[in-house]
Write a structure and sequence with these properties.
The protein is of the alpha/beta class. The chain is 45% helix and 14% strand. The protein folds into two domains: 189 residues, Vaccinia Virus protein VP39 (Rossmann fold); 97 residues, DNA polymerase, domain 1. The chain is built from 14 helices and seven strands. The longest helix is centred in the N-terminal third of the chain and has 18 residues.
């Protein structure tokens, strides 16, 4: 995949529309990635605006920083102030002032850079080391989890984070096949233990390893607790009238976003702007197949408040 193709963000126009970017405002892109959404926000902010972005992936941060520097060359004095934080977005509340944001955007999907680079170990489409860490500088790798976690805990995390019904069978096979060091080796073990059923064999059937790889990635990166921390902090960080826009890619993410917005509405903190999640049109899914599973939800803060 070329750099240009990597720079196509999911649901870009919808995200910018629901974020309601106003010149001179202060906006956060909690998931900078390759700066696709951030560059679109920056173009609308003007010189009095401020863009704050978070990403814990050093490779993505380096590319995004260059893209924003290139945009500065294009916009010149019309470029807003840009502040980049190379930490987890769960740290936002420690780094930002209360009720300081006009908008907060979070795209919870794994970036194309992570999926497409075999050495990052996120995908079974190309063989590489089992890593899966969004920040490869810290934490346990997927290889350590696969080879060190006991069978019951491994089965439980595959079931919980991958919603994989055959988790016990897969965990048993993984433990018997240890040591496992590459994505291809792990995918082969899973495929042998839990092959696609005849009734499921179709053009759109998931690869047998899909859910297990998802589970390992979520576990390694503590993705759900990160999301919960950001959603919990959002109403305290947003100004009255500020917008929260979140894009999720699987049910575990979307459920948390939906429940958070619904609870905020129940407490009178949010007005939910998306009765149903916004999804990609056919033109976008044809151009970017990864957008097929994307769901966007948005809310506007009605008043100062705090979740009970």
């Amino acid at each position: 995949m070329t750099e240009r193709e990597r720079h196509v963000p999911v649901l870009l126009q919808d995200a910018i529309r629901y974020l309601n970017v106003r010149p001179g405002g202060t906006y956060v892109d909690a998931t900078l990635g390759l700066a696709g959404h951030s560059t679109a926000i920056a173009r609308q902010l003007g010189p009095r605006g401020k863009l704050i972005a978070f990403d814990r992936d050093p490779d993505a941060m380096a590319i995004a920083r260059k893209r924003l520097d290139d945009l500065r060359e294009v916009l010149g004095p019309a470029m807003p102030e840009v502040v980049l934080h190379d930490v987890e977005f769960s740290q936002a509340e420690k780094l930002l002032e209360a009720e300081s944001l006009d908008g907060l955007l979070a795209d919870f999907g794994v970036s194309s850079l992570q999926f497409d680079e075999a050495h990052r170990g996120f995908s079974f489409q190309a063989d590489g080391p089992l890593d899966m860490r969004m920040n490869p500088r810290v934490g346990m790798s997927a290889e350590q989890v696969v080879n060190q976690v006991d069978e019951k805990e491994l089965a439980d995390l595959i079931y919980e984070f991958g919603e994989e019904r055959r988790s016990r069978r897969i965990a048993r096979a993984i433990v018997r096949a240890r040591p496992i060091t590459t994505t291809a080796q792990l995918a082969k073990v899973i495929s042998a233990a839990a092959p696609i059923m005849k009734s499921d064999r179709s053009r759109h059937a998931l690869h047998p390893a899909t859910r297990t790889f998802q589970a390992l990635r979520i576990y390694v990166n503590a993705e759900l607790s990160e999301i919960e921390a950001l959603l919990d902090a959002a109403p305290r960080l947003l100004k009255p009238g500020g917008r929260l826009v979140v894009i999720s890619f699987h049910s575990l993410e979307d459920r948390r976003a939906k429940d958070s917005l619904r609870e905020g509405a129940r407490q009178g903190i949010y007005e939910v702007l998306t009765r149903k999640p916004v999804t990609a049109e056919a033109e976008e899914t044809d151009r970017n197949p990864r957008s097929r599973s994307a769901k966007l939800r948005a809310a506007e803060k009605k008043k100062a408040g705090r979740f009970s």
